[in-house]
Sequence to fold (371 residues):
Amino acid sequence: MRNAQMIAPPSFGDARNSRQKARAAGLDPDRWYAVEYDRAIKKGQVKEVVFWNVSIALYRGEDGRLAAVQNRCPHRQLKLTQGVVENCRLRCGYHGWTFDRDGWLVDYSHDSFGKPLIKNRLRTYPVQVRYGLIWLFPGDPARAEERRIPEIQELAGDDPWAGFTIDFTWRSHHSMVIDNICDFAHAFLHRKYRPFTDAKLTHHEADEDRVYLTYDAYMAAGRISGIFVDRQRVNTRSIELCYEYPYQWTNTGDSIKNWSFLLPIDERTTRVFFVFYFDALKIPLTSLKTPKWLTQAVLNIAKPLVFKPILEEDGIALEAEQLGYDSHFDAPPVELNPVVPLFQKLTARKWEDYLVRTGALGETESKQAAG
Ligand code: FES
Ligand SMILES: [Fe+2]
Fold:
């Protein structure tokens, strides 16, 4: 037992530095999280979503409305995702107890033993759809109103930019993903596709809620992207980035933008939705801007041919980093990019704030003191 404790990375309470704290931290549940594509759940379908080890049944009723409830039947603890959607209700697959979207038990007629003694309803979660994604609020529902899904002007309104979303589920902690997508020191990893080269950090600042930074870099240096990116019109020599807790965004020349939305599934698993959008590209060998339909057509081809393989390289590195951390969490942090510790501090501080706010940190500490 003692040995097992010595070889596992420390819990948040036991962490000795901000890197260890960040690697043990969750993301604040009192925020909106992208959890699935809107199109992935059809009428009458149910799907499991996991937020930081909490299983949630997300389903769409026959009326088209989404609902999210605790994914545990109070009878024998089966996951309700093993059941079926009937009209706007979710029926457990075992004895057929049925719950409405507010979590109340509304039918038990398939169980011949009469009325179950259930006073409480299942926990429910607020849900919204934006940018083609389903957003869920895993925290205190009373706080859902005061928190906002990021406003993306370019994707709202009548004339949204061309773009696409791509997602990955990586066996890696969410804080490692943030380090990866904000730290442009890893051009070597992408030496084949060259999404950025020669990055130099030119500015950074941090406050309570975010870390903002800029690099001078040569953006979209790859062979294919180089043909379509208009270097006359768009400044591709620098990029702005921001870890806007718990989200991340980038902006290249006000023309190529992206948001990364992280779903922390557990301590070692993160799903990331990357939303990319472009105002226009250029028609090769000319200086003409592509019309939107053509921008979208080029992006539809570039998504599997360029963006996917680049991000898969990040996934391979991140999963290897997680394995490395699991074995060598006690190695002294050796970090050259000064912004990386700032990301880790922000992640750790927000998690600590959440634990203090909900009383969880006090509990852990008093248990430790008692033990
Ligand atoms: S386990 Fe769900 S109804 Fe029995
Ligand atoms: Fe990368």
Observations:
- The helical segments are 2-7, 18-24, 174-182, 223-228, 292-328, 339-357, 360-370.
- Confidence is low (pLDDT under 50) at residues 1-5, 366-371.
- The longest helix spans residues 292-328.
